[in-house]
Amino acid sequence: MFDLLHPGHVDLLTAARACGNSLVVGLNTDASVRRLKGPSRPVRAGVERAYVLAALEAVDVVVMFDEDTPLELVRALRPDVIVKGGDYSVDTIVGAREVQEWGGEAIVVPLTPGQSTTAIIEKLSGG
């Protein structure tokens, strides 16, 4: 979702970029984030989130999707590699099975300790 970009996201994106020739980032639309995270999210609008992501050297393309999962985007793009952060396992990555079925690979990148959007929001709100 990349709501508030933090060092953990940058580490994930850098690792993901190293896994292939280019990095396409699927980004949830605002409506999708609200359905998944609640009415107070996202903190930043989709165009702002996409702008920041696209400015990163590791990112080649940002594609927004309105569904609750990126499965349709994965099926349309047919990537050779799908990458998610360490809060997932290969078995829980949406689209991993499809990528593996056409000969690709699913990769889980370990989380950067101490980095969390939820923790940042709680800290800012005095929590």
Give keywords.
single chain; alpha/beta; 4 strands; globular; two-stranded parallel ribbon; 127 residues; 39% helix; two-stranded parallel sheet; Rossmann fold; 16% strand
How would you explain this protein's 3D organization?
The protein has 127 residues and is of the alpha/beta class. 39% of the residues lie in helices and 16% in strands. Strands 1-2 form a two-stranded parallel sheet. A two-stranded parallel ribbon has the order 3-4. The radius of gyration is 14 Å and the shape is globular. The model has no long low-confidence stretch (mean pLDDT 91).
Number of domains: 1
The computed structural class is: alpha/beta
Oligomer classification: single chain
Proportion of strand residues: 15-25%
Provide the CATH superfamily: HUPs
Which value, in Å, is the CA radius of gyration? Answer: 14 Å
Secondary structure tally: strands: 4
